[in-house]
Amino acid sequence: MPLINELKELWKGYHFSPTSTGPSGCFILVSILTAIADVVAMRKLTGFISHSGNHFCNFCTIHKAQIEEIGPQFHYTCSYQNHKSTIAKWLPETPQQRQAILSEYGV
Prior knowledge:
Layout: H1 2-12, E1 14-16, E2 26-28, H2 39-45, H3 80-90, H4 95-105
Antiparallel strand pairs: 1-2
C-alpha cells in the first residue's frame, strides 16, 4: 500500500523547498475526492460547459458540428495542460470575451 501511505502523509501537508520563484517554498495538502452526480452537475463540477455547449464530450475536443465524423483523426483527447491553458486564457478577460472562449473551447 505505498500509494495509500504517501497519500496519508500528503494529507498532513507537505512543504516544498524554496526556489527562485517561490522564496518561501510552498505548502500543499492533498486529498482524493469522489463525486456522484448527473452529467450536468459533473460537467459544472469539473469546469466544463453544460450539455448545451459546442463540445459535447468531456474527454475529447470534437465539436458538435463534427458529430458525424468518425475515426481517431477527428478525436483529440483533452489533457490537463490543455484545460489549464484554456483557463489561463479565460481568467483575465472581460465577460464578453470569456463567453467567446467558453463557446470555442467548452471550458
